[in-house]
Write a structure and sequence with these properties.
The chain has about 450 residues and is mainly α. It has 2 domains: about 240 residues, no CATH class; about 170 residues, no CATH class. The chain is built from 14 helices and 2 strands, in the order ααββαααααααααααα. Strands 1-2 form a two-stranded antiparallel ribbon. Helix 9 packs parallel to helix 13. It is elongated. The structure holds heme C (2 copies). The site of one heme C has 28 residues, from helix 1, helix 4, helix 5 and helix 6. One heme C binds next to helix 1, helix 4, helix 5 and helix 6.
């Protein structure tokens, strides 16, 4: 703990230095275009920049426009009517807070490339994919506003993401809107760029091309129709709106933390192949190849023994990490029961609670029931041998590959976001029942939740 505190204050100090040195040119905040856009027809680059500016303004003068609802659209208008999503003064305030407190790591454009970024591991989030890891929503969904508030208030333990627990509520709300703006802008840029590539052939061969050649080549390429911006803006705005309706609430009430529950969790840790990524001692494994994350960086299964869960250590946080997986990373969702063996959704939920207790015991540094784990692994290997010929139909729920396959292959990471799901995938059906949630309906301000049970302590503030 001491060590952790020391590390985070170090990161903070480093960041303040960076921010301080940036102060002299404070007024000069600008948005940078994606680097991979340079390969596109110059006119597409210009059109994309103009489209982004129409919806999101400039860094100096941000705005957040969305397509007006259908009933407000004038008939036969050449271009869709846009309306203000967030008040401009509020956004400018969010920009100021962000520039002062966040851009040193996350970058002015939200690309995760602030001046401090090269020194940080894990890297600051690049918001432009529209993907966030520590959400209360199903895999593939956007975070809820509360999720963003929570990570900003409490930080991400074990990473350089600091805790802003003393930020005023006004600053917090403004910076959240600004992060959503940067994320929406970045996702729109990415999606329109993909469209220009796949549908318009906008990516040119620029190798040793003279300006004349490029000008000639781009004549063949159709313009980006403004309707594309409207479509993509609608898509992105809808995906944020949907997040509010799909909160993951545990399907069954939280079970008590007991030794039996921990042992059952240890067996599930083997049966669902968690140990193949996280190691039989939960230490993770920096060597084991679990693939890349959607940002293109090598992913590592978390070392649970550090005691620092990036997404929070309340039981409900851990439940959600296991149930929904971790967006943008190889950590799969385990929501789907193994129907082939007759497992029900409710049984799966109970298994997840056992896993929560098992993970909690590791996080709290309790001795592992290593005999239970080793026994379960021997059992698993024996079953594998007796299964003479694995049938194609043997792998049940396709949504939770690592949970179900009997191979050592980590699941393929989700492919980069081009076709990112509009609707939540099947695992992510909003839980039908409003079950006794393991959290209070209004989440208390982050870091201050004092649930009276084994995993409640969020640790000291940084
Ligand atoms: C010292 C560097 C640093 C500063 C300053 C910083 N962050 Fe972060 N932030 C990070 C890192 C690193 C991560 C990634 C953590 C991870 O991947 O586990 C992160 C992640 C995030 C996430 C993503 C959470 C998720 O669920 O994926 C959000 C949102 C965020 N930061 C917002 C902010 C805001 C807002 C500020 C300013 C008020 C800020 N950060 C300041 C380093 C920083
Ligand atoms: C395919 C490999 C893989 C499998 C299988 C896997 N995980 Fe993970 N897990 C990961 C990766 C990668 C991360 C780190 C994600 C990140 O934050 O970047 C992770 C992170 C975690 C975390 C940390 C969350 C936090 O807040 O920091 C927990 C807890 C966890 N996994 C539990 C489990 C459990 C329980 C299972 C089995 C039911 C499991 N994992 C199966 C790859 C895997």
């Amino acid at each position: 703990m001491t060590c952790h505190l020391y590390l985070s204050s170090l990161a903070l100090a480093g960041c303040c230095l960076v921010l301080a040195s940036g102060c002299s040119r404070e007024a000069e905040v600008t948005f940078a275009p994606r680097e991979d856009l340079q390969a596109f027809a110059p006119k597409h680059q210009t059109q994309l920049a103009a489209g982004l500016e129409e919806y999101f303004g400039t860094a100096n003068s941000p705005r957040f426009m969305v397509v007006a609802p259908d009933e407000e659209q004038p008939e036969d208008a050449a271009e869709p009517l846009l309306v203000q999503q967030v008040d401009r003064l509020h956004l400018a305030h969010g920009r100021d807070v962000y520039t002062r407190q966040c851009a040193g790591c996350h970058g002015n454009t939200g690309d995760g490339q602030g001046p401090a970024a090269p020194y940080l591991d894990p890297l600051p989030r690049d918001y432009r994919l529209g993907k966030f890891k520590f959400t209360s929503t199903p895999r593939g969904s956007k975070p809820r506003r509360e999720d963003l508030a929570r990570i900003i208030r409490r930080g991400a333990k074990g990473t350089s993401m600091p805790s802003f627990r003393w930020m005023s509520e006004e600053d917090l709300q403004a910076v959240i809107d600004y992060v959503v703006l940067l994320s929406s802008r970045g996702e729109m840029e990415y999606r329109v760029m993909r469209f220009a590539d796949l549908e318009l052939g906008g990516k040119l061969d620029m190798q040793d091309a003279t300006p004349e050649k490029i000008a000639e080549a781009e004549k063949e390429v159709p313009d980006i129709d403004p309707a594309i911006f409207a479509d993509e803006a609608r898509f992105v705005a809808d995906s944020w709106r949907q997040a509010d309706d799909v909160i993951v609430r545990p399907l069954t009430p939280q079970t008590p933390y007991t030794e039996e529950a921990v042992a059952a969790g240890a067996r599930a840790f083997v049966a669902l192949n968690c140990y193949k990524c996280h190691g039989r001692d939960g230490r993770g494994n920096r060597v084991q190849d679990v693939g890349k994350d959607d940002w293109g960086h090598v992913a590592y299964a978390a070392d649970l023994t550090t005691g620092m869960l990036h997404g929070g250590r309340r039981p409900v946080d851990i439940y959600r990490r296991i149930y929904a997986g971790i967006n943008g990373t190889p950590m799969p969702a385990f929501a789907q029961p193994d129907t082939a063996s007759g497992e029900t959704e409710l049984q799966r939920s109970e298994t997840i609670w056992n896993l929560v207790h098992f993970v909690t015991s590791i996080v709290e540094g309790k001795p592992l029931p290593q005999d239970v784990i080793d026994e379960a692994i021997r059992e698993q290997l024996k079953n594998l041998e007796t299964q003479t010929q694995p049938e194609a139909g043997d792998t049940p729920a396709p949504e939770a590959p690592a949970g179900d396959t009997s191979t050592n292959q980590p699941p393929a990471p989700e492919s980069p976001p081009a076709e990112s799901p509009t609707v939540a995938p099947p695992t992510t059906e909003p839980p039908a029942t409003e079950t006794p949630a393991a959290e209070s309906p209004a989440e208390p301000p982050a870091g201050e939740d004092s649930k009276n049970n084994a995993a409640s302590a969020e640790g000291a503030p940084d």
